[in-house]
Amino acid sequence: MSTPEPLTDEELADIEERTEATTPGPWHVRILDDDWAMNLVAVGTVPDTGRGERWPDFDHHQIVAATLVQQPRYVDVADGRWDENAQFIANARQDIPRLIAEIRRLRRLLKANAAQDA
């Protein structure tokens, strides 16, 4: 496996811009029910209540993405990792800004260290 090229400052700015353009976080995994109470795994802007609400008992305006919609079968990834995918999507909303900040912090440290060594 080859080592990927380092991100340029422009690429990092593009990632940050895409992140900032999304619905504000934090995002949460929601376990809801679909038409026939088969299960609906979604990512939303409010925490899960633990009640497994069926539509219309949840506000669709709070849903950012779905990783499982079984009835009708709209979203159902073959590997069955609905919960894991939902966790990744929900956490990406806060993880990506933190990673961008960490990359920038480390770049500043490298630049400062290089200036000291010069």
Describe this protein with a few key phrases.
alpha+beta, 4 strands, single chain, 41% helix, 4-stranded antiparallel beta sheet, elongated, 118 residues
Question: Please, could you describe this protein's structure?
Answer:
The chain is of the alpha+beta class. The chain has one domain (9-113). The chain contains 2 helices and 4 strands. Strands 1-2-3-4 form a 4-stranded antiparallel beta sheet. Helix 1 (9-20) packs antiparallel against helix 2 (82-117). The model has no long low-confidence stretch (mean pLDDT 93).
Q: Briefly, what is this?
A:
With 118 residues, the protein is of the alpha+beta class. The chain has helices spanning 9-20, 82-117; strands at 28-32, 40-44, 63-69, 75-76. It has one domain (9-113).
Give unreliable regions as ranges: none
Q: How far is the first residue's CA from the last residue's CA? A: 34 Å
What Rg, in angstroms, do the CA atoms define?
Answer: 19 Å
Q: On the 0-100 scale, what is the average pLDDT? A: 93
Order of helices and strands: HEEEEH
Describe the secondary-structure layout:
Layout: H1 9-20, E1 28-32, E2 40-44, E3 63-69, E4 75-76, H2 82-117
Antiparallel strand pairs: 1-2, 2-3, 3-4
